[in-house]
Amino acid sequence: MAYSGFSGGMMLHLGYVQSGVFAFSNGETMQLKGLVFGLGGQARLHFGEHLRVGGEGYFTEHKYKNGSYAKIGWGGVLADCAWQIGKFTPFVGGTFGGGSQQNLTNFSKPKIDYELKELSYRKYGFMCAVPFAGVEYGISKRIHLVFKADYMFNLSNRQDDFITGPRFYFGFTFCR
Predict the structure, then answer these.
(1) What backbone torsions phi and psi does residue 66 show, to the nearest 5 degrees?
(2) What pLDDT score does 161 carry?
(3) Does domain 3-175 have CATH number 3.40.50.1370?
(4) In the predicted model, is pLDDT for residue 125 greater than 90?
(5) Which of 157, 169, 152, 110 lies closest to 17 in space, CA to CA?
(6) 172 within 8 A of 142, measured Cβ to Cβ
(7) pTM
(8) For the purposes of burial, counting CB atoms within 10 Å of the CB of 163, is it exposed (0-12), middle (13-18) or buried (19 or more)?
(9) pLDDT digits over 42-69, tens only?
């Protein structure tokens, strides 16, 4: 279990999310579902042949009608187990942390600049667990391509407008 190096990098992600059905004070109900995109990164310390521990943080955004959006920013402590198989390194692990979700809903399409509109804005924090699995491909000893999939579970503050679903990551990790 001796220290055996570190790695870190950035990743883009795409996914499909869905919320529960929720109601506004004006009586309108809505359910968010659709594509998300985002960016983030991670850094890990390696111990022995298999254990990697570190942290990661990301933002993910879902855009919907009239310029409305739901955004999640989150991060936490990660641990994973990795196996070296030639140039491939499959891994499985999870992150425990927290974040916040913002949801801005614009009820009418803007007609002119500086027009007052009816909007709804919500922001709340939460704790989360995020299991993940993926594979790295070694382009060289120090640069790896990363493919990863995850799914976020809201542990502490489940709201009907919380968006969750599978996300798929692609990026680079730099190793030492």
Answers:
(1) 55, 35
(2) 93
(3) no
(4) yes
(5) 152
(6) no
(7) 0.89
(8) buried
(9) 999 999 999 999 999 999 999 998 889 9
